[in-house]
Structure formats: structure tokens, C-alpha cells
Amino acid sequence: MFPAYSSIGLSLIISIVACVHVVRTGREYYWLLLILIFQPLGAIIYSVAIVLPELFGGGRAQRAGRALSAQLDPAGAYRQAARAVDDNPSVYNRIQLATAAFDLGRYEEAERLYRESAEGIYADDPALLLGRARALIELKRPQEALELLQRLHDLGEEGRTPQAALALGRAQEALSNLDEAELAYEQAALHLPGLEGMARYAALLSARGREKDAEAVLADMNRRVKGTPSRFRREARAWRDFAASRVREPA
Q: Do residues 170 and 139 make contact, with C-beta atoms less than 8 angstroms apart?
């Protein structure tokens, strides 16, 4: 019996320490609910998302923490990024705020932040060019996005990422440049993590009357959904369903 009581006591102590950290560091109070309701898992999630990145300060740990925090509460990630900009309006902090705004669907704000940050030595920064291009695509301004993506491509390898290929495909498709869009989507489908690139590629192939090719991509997506880790499966299924709704049924 004693080991069981010890486990309960340790779980409670960890949760209390995590709650104290939440209050003392001024974190959002939804963390308190998460920690107290889901003991000890809530405290573990909080430690991974907040405490460990603070302790170790490494770029990879900080990015992982921000990604997990943003996934749990996008609005909270936006508020945190806004406070960081108020404290220090550096280009890095403004990029984080623009990313958080984009994730909330605040595309006009994201576009403005990316545009205002892309000055001086940052005029050709790949993250700023791609971020602004993505926001412009969502704002139905594909020609402006295409001009930025062409500048990004001219930077060389650092501007020719799978994410850039996906954005290029979307801009070209919106401008009815379907040959160029297909080439870009094909690259995104081959190299972009997740299923969005494949979904948009399959949809375009179907729209161009290439049903067998589209069905082959969709079949590959179905196989990949089954092997997707559970925490990413919902998003994977959403993109699979997006493609399936656009691939025509065989006659």
C-alpha cells in the first residue's frame, strides 16, 4: 500500500509546484485547470511546454515548447507573443506574433507585421518573405504573393523549401497558371511533412481531368493516415477528406 500512497503524494507535490510556477510567472490560468484536473499529466505537459524551455533555453527546446503551447491554446500563444513584442519589439518577436496571428486567422494583421518587419537587412529574410506570401494568399492577393515567392526562390536553397513550394502552388493555382501550380504541388507532395501538399496536388490533378493520377495520390494518403501518430491523425484525416471531396468518383 505504501508505494501507492507515495505515488499519489509525489503526483500531488509535482502538481503543486507546477501551480506555484504558473502563479509566480504570470502564466495564463488555464494552465492551473489543466494541471489540477489531469494529474500528473497536466504538470508534465506544462513542464515540457513552459518550464524546460525556460531552464535550458536551447532553440530547439524553445521551439518545441512554443509549438505545444500554441497547439493547446492558440489565443494564449498570441497573447504571449503580443506581450513579448510590447517588452521588446525585435524582428524575432514580431515574427512570432505574426505567426500566432496567422494561426488565428488574423491574416491582415499577420501580413502587416511581416511587411513592417521586412526592412533593411531583413528585406530578403526567407521567413518574412514566406510568411507574408502565405498571408497574402489567404487575403486573395496571389499576384503579390507570387512576386514575393519569386524573390524567395532567387535566394537559393534556403528559399526553395517544401513550404515555399506549397505556397507557390497555391499562388499559381489562384492565378490559373495550372502547369506551374502542378509542378509546385508535386514538390510539396513529395517533401512536405503532413498531407496538405498531397491533398492539394490530388485536387488539382482531378480538376485537370487526371483522375487515375489523383486516385493514386489519394490511395497513398489513405495509407499514410493509418500510420500517422494519434496526435496528428485528426489533421491528417482532414486533409485526406479535403482531397477525397475533390477527386471525382470513377465512372
A: no
Q: How many CB atoms lie within 10 A of CB 105?
A: 10
Domain with 242 in it: 198-250
Same domain, 133 and 93: yes
Give, in degrees to the nearest 5, the angle at Cα 224 between 210 and 167. 60
The Cα angle at residue 95 between residues 122 and 50, in degrees rounded to 5:
140
Q: What angle do CA 155, 203, 160 make, to 5 degrees?
A: 10
Whether 207 and 222 have beta carbons less than 8 Å apart is answered as: no
| Domain containing residue 79: CATH number | 1.25.40.10
Residue type, 194: G
The DSSP symbol for 49 reads I
Q: Is residue 216 part of a domain?
A: yes
Number of independent structural domains in the chain = 2
Using one digit for the tens of pLDDT, what is the confidence trace for 103-160?
999 999 999 999 999 988 989 999 999 999 999 999 999 999 999 999 999 999 888 9
User: Using an 8 Å Cβ cutoff, are 199 and 242 in contact?
Assistant: yes
Q: Is the peptide bond before 40 cis (omega within 30 degrees of 0)?
A: yes
User: Do residues 142 and 86 both lie within one domain?
Assistant: yes
Whether the Cβ atoms of residue 47 and residue 61 lie closer than 8 Å to each other: no
pTM of the model: 0.71
CA separation, residue 35 to residues 29, 64, 200, 212 (Å): 10, 19, 39, 50
Contact 166, 185 (CB under 8 A): yes
Q: Are 117 and 95 in contact (CB under 8 A)?
A: yes
3-state DSSP helix/strand/coil percent for the chain, to nearest 5? 80, 0, 20
pLDDT digits (tens, 9 = 90+) for 42-91: 788 877 776 666 555 444 444 545 554 555 567 878 888 899 899 898 88
